[in-house]
Amino acid sequence: MSPSRLVSRLTEAGEHGLTAENFEQAVQDYSEALRIKSTLLPPSSRALASVHYQLATVLEFTPAGRDAALRHVQQALAGFQARLAELSKPTSAVDEITKLSDKERESEKKDAEGLIEDLQIKIEELKQAPVGGEVDIVKEGVNHLLGGGLSAFGVPTTSTETDSGPVNDLTSMVKKKKKPAAAPTTTPAPVDVKVENGEKRKAEEADGADAKKAKVE
Asked: What is the pLDDT of residue 207?
């Protein structure tokens, strides 16, 4: 099996582990996919940065995985910064970038700048202690960094060894804080009152009788 095909299967297995909430297995699959991709792609590869982010997302679900998640988001950030640097060069050493038209290069530079800002926000959030000691679950996914689909957890469903396709916004990958649930409202039960003959009547009836009595007096 070719390395690229193996990486594809590993990332698919990682996604399956995530959706099945088998986070430890997903971490293993994404880690192995990342190890292989690191030998195939340059540091400025968007595909490589994508796997770093996928792995970071899964690590947030594991015990004591927050620090490791932070490291991988930082590596994803470094990858996009390297990508932006290559895109900004008049002549890039990356073969794939040399094939881009001026319009495509400018469009990708803009996207990369936005991703860098999003990842910087994510890093600052990971540096903070989680509220209540719990890791917030990412509820809203975004488009795959490489233009693929999404799983229910917002993790890309496809993998590729190339860097073609648009770079999409990661803003909604930033953790969402849960709003406190509103306290339930209850309607007080009608209060019964006693009358002289020992029978009970509703409070509303008692009020009506009092009003009539006041008129007579």
From this structure: 55
| Domain co-membership, 30 together with 90 | yes
Question: Which regions of the chain are under pLDDT 50?
Answer: 132-161, 165-181, 191-204, 211-217
List the domain range (segments joined by +) for residue 209.
186-217
pTM as predicted: 0.64
Q: How far apart are CA 14 and CA 107, in angstroms?
A: 31
The Cα–Cα gap between 115 and 133 comes to 28
Q: What is the 3-state secondary structure (H, E, C) of the chain?
A: CCHHHHHHHHHHHHHHHHHCCCHHHHHHHHHHHHHHHHHHCCCCCHHHHHHHHHHHHHHCCCCCCHHHHHHHHHHHHHHHHHHHHHHHCCCCCCHHHHCCCHHHHHHHHHHHHHHHHHHHHHHHHHHCCCHHHCCCCCCCCCCCCCCCCECCCCCECCCCCCCCCCCCCCHHHCCCCCCCCCCCCCCCCCCEEECCCCCEEEHHHHHHHHHHHHHHC
Q: Within a domain: residue 179?
A: no
| pLDDT at residue 176, rounded to an integer | 43
